[in-house]
Structures are given as C-alpha cells and as structure tokens.
C-alpha cells in the first residue's frame, strides 16, 4: 500500500485536496489512480441514482394527484411534483446524456412509484403499464390531472 492509498483510507478530505493539487500541477506519478477511478465511477452512479430517485418520487406524486381523490392533499402533492420536475430538469441540463438513462429507467421508476402508492392507498386502481408521456420534456412540464 502506498502512502497516498493509506491517506485515502485515513483522511479522505486530505486525500481529495492532495489529488486535486497533484492534478492541477500535472504530477501524474503522484496520483492514486485506483481510488481516483473508483471515485469518478461513484460520481457517475450517484448521478444515475439521483435521477432514478427523483423520477420515482415525481411519478409517485403524479399518481397520487391523478388517481387519488383527496383535495386536501392536492397542494402538497403538486408542490412536490413541481419541485421534482425542476430538480430533474436541472439534473438533465447539467448532464444531458442522462436523458438516455431517463428513457431506460422510466418503467422501473413507474413500478416503484406504483408500489409506494399502493402501500399507502391499497384501494386505488392503478394501471400496471406506465400511462404518462415518455418524453422527458412533456413529463417535466405537463399537467396530467386536469
């Protein structure tokens, strides 16, 4: 184990600072490549996981607003929908390639959101198949319950 690798395990913040400094100074021989690659891979996974989590939450609240007749809850559900739409839009704006992931995970997110809602409101009749637009722009801007 090199000094840099042990630094990664002992003091992550210091490891980050030194890695950044080494990259800026182009001291490539000083870089802890194995841990740096793992960190970059983790960043990529986190971006995808955040999209999946936000999309599931968005769909959960769209389902509630579209299929559950509880007017006293509408405002809170719509506020969550708008907030998640904005956050997903921002995420896709920062990382446009995530649109490809969006299209790949929409059905899984629908299934997860549907299960959440059915746990909370088991009497509601929800479609098995995803009923909303697959186009991210429409999903992030349209209203489906009016």
Give a short summary of the structure:
The chain has six helices and no strands. With 146 residues, the chain is mainly α.
Describe the model.
- This protein is mainly α and 146 residues long.
- The model has no long low-confidence stretch (mean pLDDT 92).
- The protein is elongated, with a radius of gyration of 21 Å.
- 73% of the residues lie in helices and 0% in strands.
- The termini are far apart.
- It has 2 domains: 1-31, no CATH class; 45-139, no CATH class.
- It has 6 helices and no strands.
* Broad shape: elongated
Separation of termini? 62 Å
Major sheet characteristics: none
Residues in helix, %: over 70%
Total E-strand runs: 0
Radius of gyration based on Cα positions = 21 Å
- Helix-strand string: HHHHHH
Number of helices: 6
- The portion of residues forming beta strands comes to under 5%
Q: Note poorly predicted spans.
A: none
Oligomeric state = single chain
Roughly what is the average pLDDT, rounded to an integer? 92
Number of domains: 2
State the secondary-structure class: mainly alpha
